[in-house]
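Lecture 7 notes: from sequence to structure.

We start with a single chain of 621 residues. Read the sequence below before looking at the structure.
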Amino acid sequence: MTTETMPAQPQRLRSTPENEPTVKMIIASARSAPVRGPARGAWLLSLVTGILLLMSFPPLDWGPLAWVAIVPLVLLVRIPTRTKWMYRAVYGGGFAFTLIALQWMRLASAPMYFAWLALALYVAMYFPLFVALSRVAVHRFSIPLTLAVPVVWVGLEFARAYMLTGFSWYYLGHTQYRWVELIQISDVVGAYGVSFLIAMLAACLAGLLPVSLLSRLKLLVPGEEQPLLHAEQTSFSRRAISVTVCIAVFAAVLGYGFVRRGQANFVEGARVALVQGNFPPSFKHDPTQASRRKIFETHHNLTGMAVKKHPVDLIVWPETMYRAPLMVASPDLGDELLAKQSPPGVRAEDWRRSLVPKVLSNMSRQSGAAMIIGIETWTADREGFRRYNSAAFSRPDVGLTGRYDKLHRVIFGEYVPLQKEVPLMAALSPMPIQFQLSKGKTASAFEYKGMRYAPVICFEDTVPHLMRGIAKSTADPQTGKPVDCFVNLTNDGWFHGSSELDQHLITAQFRCIETRTPMVRAVNTGISAIIDGDGVVVEPDDFIDGDGKGRNSMRDSKTGQYHKQLNAAIVSTVPLDDRRSAYVVWGDWFAGSCGLMAGFVFIGGLIPRRRRETNVATDES
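Now the structure, written as tokens:
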């Protein structure tokens, strides 16, 4: 009987080259590959945060929702392993919020649709960056959640105030403007301190939520739930300490606010009349004399109505509402060179014969009050021709005495960056290139009847470090005493009564607390207002309805909302504040420190983790 023998296996199946992975190595590699949860939980939480933030700001203005708005994002920080598409989801939720919140930008003009989209895309980037940096701080450096989250959040708000000329809108702390005692901490650490407090308590709440919630949201991967449950059961004392610290900080901030408000001793200062017309940009920029005359007559008549009822010390017209330019030519320019430096259609004799200084002086004498007038200034010298967005100051006794040229220009609105290098950038601006504005050189203070005023124009009152700098630079050089009052001249007619007007006013309220300086605001279309050093909008002594509709208050009696898009004048007394501000003295030490720590976390996150090398032994038989 023949026995059949199976052929031997080829030797190549029994030997493995050194550079070819073994089966066990492949299995080990597969087991070590990160397993991620589904993306739907991250999408849900990100959209919830976007919706809650949107509801926290005007127009809905449900500020209490801000205390829980970022809790869903903090849950994404808390989980050990990120989900699939997590950062895309977070960016999507942030973009949904910023796109809707900033929709008022599109109202300015058709080109602003592109600027609106670009700004929304940019601001939304801070949301995934917040989650990423917080996760590095918590999971790599073992920083407590209740410290990492507020530090990173405030650090990014601080960065946003400077990046791309700065955008200090829609800070988390701005949602609490109605809680006057709580926001007084701003005179030490800026509005950033209020954002820090909200983010810290949100992190505390997110840390108290049960692990079972994370499981139901499919945020955990297999094997993570049991260790987290065990940690939840054994970390009672640590969590109790965290809650106690958060409550103590909250109580300290609130207590500080009550103390500081109790120290206020407001004294009646100058009596001011704030005049506002109601003119859309299309009418304002109509070159015809009829449009200019209509704007002038409206503001002039409202001024007359105000001074007829009340003797006033100061009258304020909004930004660029005196439509003829203030023309200032260097005296050493001859007619030939002056004509060469002038814009098209402007002759050398136009500079010599300008009646604007005389008209402004006459208006001041007729009203018996000083005037701060929003005007465009044209200058010509040997270096060329420039346009400035200015505030001209005129006194009844001496006439025109000076002007302030705007320091902080609005990107794409007043100037276009890189317009020579990238000509297409000009398409993002509603203003033609020839109307782009130059930057002012320094802040200015004007004095009348013992009161010193520092004008700021348009969105300058939204920039915290700029306002602090103006407060410092305009202080009396001999006594060190700061100016008595900020004067904001604004044209919010671009935004047609939208929520931009409310948000602009809110940011101005925080500037008053930070500097402990009252502010008066004359705003085309509204909201003109007087704000005291506590950041409270003061109901004026007299509200003059220039449209004859019987309105006698800043607010609608039925809805409680501010009146917008109307011709009006406000007359009241400036509440002087004798308190001093640590924020003006020390600056952004707090927010800057948070930004610095967030920067260290960012650098740490770029350094790859060291992985242990595992030698997989091969069994030989």
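The domain at 268-407+442-578 is CATH 3.60.110.10 (Nitrilase/N-carbamoyl-D-aminoacid amidohydrolase). Keep this in mind for problem set 3.
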